[in-house]
Amino acid sequence: MADPPGCCAACATCLLCPYSCQWITAKKEKRKGLRTTKCDCIWFLFLFVVFLFTLVWLYFTIIILNDFHNFNEFIFKQRKLWLDWSLVLLIATTVLISYSSVLLVLALCLQLCGQPLKLHWVHKILLILTALVVAAAFTGLGIKWAEEWRSARISLQATGPFLHIGIVGGMTLLAWPLASFIYRTRNTGLKVFLVLIYCTVMIALYLAPLGITSPCIMEENQLPPKPALVGHRGAPMLAPENTLMSLHKAMDCDVQVFETDVMVSADGVPFLMHDEELTRTTNVQAVFPERAALNSTAFNWTDLQQLDAGSWFLERRPFPTVQSLSAADRYQATKQRIPSLGQVLEAAKQSNISIMFDLRPENHSDYQNFVNATLGVILRSGIPLQQILWLPDGFREQVKQQAPGVQQVYGRKRLQNEKEPLLHVNLPYQDMSSEEIRQYRQDNISVNLYVVNQPWLFSVLWCSGVSSVTTNACQVLKEMKHPIWLLPSSTYLMIWIVVDCVSFLVILWAFFLLKKCSHRRQAAESETDVLLTKINSLMQE
């Protein structure tokens, strides 16, 4: 296989060495007999598939970062080990995508230079391992975290238009090595097959925007109001969760609702705590080592007040933002204690912030007493009842009778035969489509979705018209004055047409230019063959 005019011997050697894992000089006589076989082509195809596979996994990795704190908490409950596993995931994914990307670029450059695609066996083994690791990751995601598939579907509403442009650009660049291979190979059937496949894929991509929908494709004057912010356990990126410091930090972020979890102590005092055990967010293992594994409700209020509810935040650093806290904030965090519901209601009454809470654990034998104790604290606090958003389903009718001013929030969608209209719903963001959000908004039903941390997700829900979102990142979403992107449909149509036209012209140019290069090379080879024939004849004479 002759070297094309633009590929020097040094470049060919540098490309072959990392791809084939051996030093092959660029002299033709030493490369004689090295050709790309059918087996080599199959391995190149496998390399391309693995690259796409890891690229899709990279996309999923970025998407699930919104919910990864839940995964960290899950691992802690199972193994009592705290680690930011998102960092581990990102590093591993980056290594896999970088490895397959470098190999693919080397292969494409080798093809353009007319060099043989002799993939070394070490690379073959590593590619198989890469495919197995990514397949295992997808399988685990489907089994243990199935709702993230719905998150990925929602993410396409935010990224669909830009993914389309990127994929069209990538497939357009692929036209160069494809044209080079077609003009070099002598297998007519293979040529026709590759061209048909490529043309089919490109036509599908050119028409893909017909199936792309996004709530952010709208006119500026149609944009709904910005969703209100609900602090998930306060402002957990800035302060220890479910503490008075977290409540005050949430107020600084203009949060309208403080979302928390309430439990009731053994002596009947409602207090703030999310986990059924105290080990994650307190120093109970140091203070009460023999009772550390007990349920939070097994401790009386005097015992709970002895626990440090803030130092863990600085030690474990549940979010990267902990590193940027000021010295004053760090000192304040170490002084946090488990707050009672009464203390939180007093702070909320003074600041006019609403309180939304779950009452845990729902399956406790004394749950009715928990409801009574919680309701008693609310009524005695003197807080306006419209500032209380009641989430627990247990004994809801009793609560309506004793405190009719409390706002009832339901963790489900409305039913067809609803006895009384729902005014507030609180659901995971994966459970409602953009169409449902718009319909609820038209029917004056307030929709709060949780947990929304990433700006891209907040933008999609903003464009959809959601009333509020529960977030860990109130300090980030507070600063957003506008969705990340908003395109009028006419502008998107123009971008679609321009991208498709430019891509089509570049593909034609690639095939035309490489065809001319192919003809020149063939002409040069013919002249060389004629010259060699004449020299051979003269030598025989």
From TrEMBL:
Keywords: Glycoprotein, Hydrolase, Membrane, Transmembrane, Transmembrane helix. Gene3D superfamilies: Phosphatidylinositol (PI) phosphodiesterase. It comes from the Eukaryota. GO terms for molecular function: glycerophosphodiester phosphodiesterase activity. The chain crosses the membrane at residues 41-65, 85-113, 125-143, 163-183, 190-212, 493-514. Residues 227-481 form the GP-PDE domain. GO terms for cellular component: plasma membrane. This is GDPD2 inositolphosphodiesterase. It comes from Serilophus lunatus (silver-breasted broadbill).
